[in-house]
Model the fold of this input.
Amino acid sequence: MNKKFLDGLKTTLITVAVSVILIIFLSPFIFMASTSLKTQGQISIMGGPIWPAAQPKITYNDKEVDVFSVPVAQCEGFDPNSEEVLSLAIVEKGRQESTFVNPDDLGRGEFLCQVSWRALDRPWKFSPTWQNYTDVWELIPNGYPRLLWNTTFYALITMLGTVVSCILVAYGFARFRFPGRDLLFVILISTLFLPFAVTIIPTYAFWQRLGLVGTWWPLIVPHFFANAYNVFLFRQYFMTLPQAIDESAMIDGAGPLRILWSVIVPQSYPVIIAVVVFHIVFAWNDYFGPLIYLSTSIEKWPISVALSSFNGIYGQQPQLIQAGAMLALILPVILFFVAQRFFIQGIVVTGVEK
Amino acid sequence: MLEQFEQFAKRKRTKVSLRTMTPNARREMKIGYLLLSPWLIGFVAFTFLPMLATLFFSFLDLSITDGIFSAPKFVGFDNYAHLWDDPQAGINPTTWFSSQTPSSLMVTIKFALIALPVGIFFPLILALLMNNKHLKGQFIFRSLFYMPYIVPFVASVFLWGGMLNPETGWINRLLVFMGVAKDVVPQWANDVNWVYPTYVIMGIWGVGNAMLIMLAGIQGVPTELYDAADVDGANGWKKFWNITFPMISPVIFYNLVLNIIGLFQYFLVPLVVNNGTGRPGGATMFFNLYLYRTFFTFQDMAYGSTLAWFLFMVILAITIVLFATAKYWVYYAGESRS
Done:
């Protein structure tokens, strides 16, 4: 009984503590969602609410009039002992007394309250400004639909290259024995630790010489030549598959590519999906490559470069920047929630397995 | 992944002579190299030759303007002599105090010293929490702590940049709400003293990967070890220090290596947040950012290559030192420790 209580207490404490850390950790998402729905006016008012809100106005006698929070005890026709505060629209402003109407009870007509309008607060009402999203949709360089297309095109075509080339190379490492294989595998792994700086200058100069800076080629071509991370993932997975089926297929006369296509690939869906989702997220988020190779070809920009340029132009309007960030991250986040199992397994393989 | 190096060093070497290979073995070799060829070609074309070219460029006087190369001139070690005297690079200790702005090497090391402990301990603490048997809903927590990792880098910088905006950000609003005077709240990315903490906070969304790897390592520790420790009456800290830590030391080592290499190449955040200008006061002119500007802004290929080759040598040296120390504290199960 006592131990059970203690366990329950510990569970509650730890779960609550981790939840608090999580909320702080994820609070920028709430910040983004809230700010992206605010008006510029609300952001610039110090001490305004943190949720998207507006100070309401109503139209009275064809005029826009502001709404204030008024303690009704000061007003004629109300109970002087009442502690109620109503949102009333001001018709005539005065220092000692002001004329109001009740927007919810216009039939009552105008009435006087013994208040100085300057001393009153204006109420905030929840009011999301969806307009920010339509603004960003058009104002972001190229427009959002075009950015979606550019980014998706880049992600899908390089995904194809990386999956095909990495499967071939990993198959070679996993299933064939030949002199130099182990040394080459160690070299492959060590490229993970190579600083990109030591190759980028000649590589950039090479593409420039070919006149291909400003095109997709420098970004796409290298992905067709395999990379260490994904080769490692595939190879680890292939090595867990039983060789017996390979061998019986070989006896039946199947060649190496046939075995790969008909025996190994069908058994490897989990790792293929993992590499596909990792790659799509990588390509979607890639900033440096497109920045250096496409900086002058605005019409080819993916979303990351466009967002950073958008920030340079509209940096003084946080609501637009946050709406733009939302448009940039929503698709990878959805992809993550759909395929989270594959993400998590894939990471575990690279970090923990030998 | 790193155990590949260990295994390779310890493998049994077999002498193979091409002449004595059986026809089958030859056929296997041919297919093997054919399958590897995409990577082999890519490695030579996009890694090996560019590396040699970078080394070669560092001995030339060479620049590139709008795609047109200047006539290359061989200058021997002039670029390296310039590197030694360059106060902005900051290799020569005597230049550290002679110039007003901090040197790039110092900026990089200083930031690494702040960011590295966070990059190791924060994911470790999170992983230990995720593994706590008293935590309900472990799977949901694990997913949600990982999730920000997949947010596009530029977007996450703007989200945290908004949170840390000195006037409108929630963090300063919270500080003011808690009674901090308006004129003493941190200016975050605009303040020399706060810009490194700002970058560390902006980088904190990258912990998901390390957390998952460490968590998997912790979950892979055989439970018998903890049972035995319970019999001996060990407390939680003793169990962590004598069982969990040694058993997950390869995973920590892997993260340590990746973190240090990443920190020496750090430059994208200052490029986006402070426009790569080094503001405030040169505190964000990281070494790799200086390199980036030397080549992409000032189009000096030769000196850029010199900086790049120097950075490579530094990273290589650190990696070698790390691997050399590994045998004293990294424990690979399956090998006996004598």
Notes: Strands of chain B lie at 60-61, 64-65, 68-69, 73-74. The domain at 82-329 of chain B is CATH 1.10.3720.10 (MetI-like fold). Chain B touches chain A through 102 residues (CB under 8 Å). Chain B has one domain: 82-329.
